[in-house]
């Protein structure tokens, strides 16, 4: 089976949006797909390009051939360079200010959650150490 990574058209008549999909090359453009690995919307400025890098790497590794447009998107996201073995591959996708703000807010939430987890782990470790010290002192008093 010849597998391709190509675009599946979604959206309205004059407002197309696309999904980046892995599909058998003999299927229709909007037919049944094997897996959806991303989204591409060219309407807003800057365009929305979100591709799951791990899945794209997998499918390229097993021999899936990207279409011309998907190859251009993979070059922008840096996935083609990663697949070709370049360690310093960087995404050149422009991100809108709203997306940057959302990513920053998510990073703050993640940092707070991580701090809360580490604080809980530290307090649990301290309680465990205190319990061990109390047990050791009881054993010392009994002896």
From TrEMBL:
Keywords: Ribonucleoprotein, Ribosomal protein. GO terms for cellular component: cytoplasm; small ribosomal subunit. PROSITE patterns: RIBOSOMAL_S16 (PS00732). One of its GO terms (molecular function) is structural constituent of ribosome. Residues 116-143 are annotated as: Disordered. Residues 116-129 have a biased composition (Basic and acidic residues). One of its GO terms (biological process) is translation. PANTHER family: 30S RIBOSOMAL PROTEIN S16, SMALL RIBOSOMAL SUBUNIT PROTEIN BS16M. NCBIfam families: PRK14520.1, S16. Belongs to the bacterial ribosomal protein bS16 family. This is Small ribosomal subunit protein bS16. It comes from Schaalia georgiae F0490.
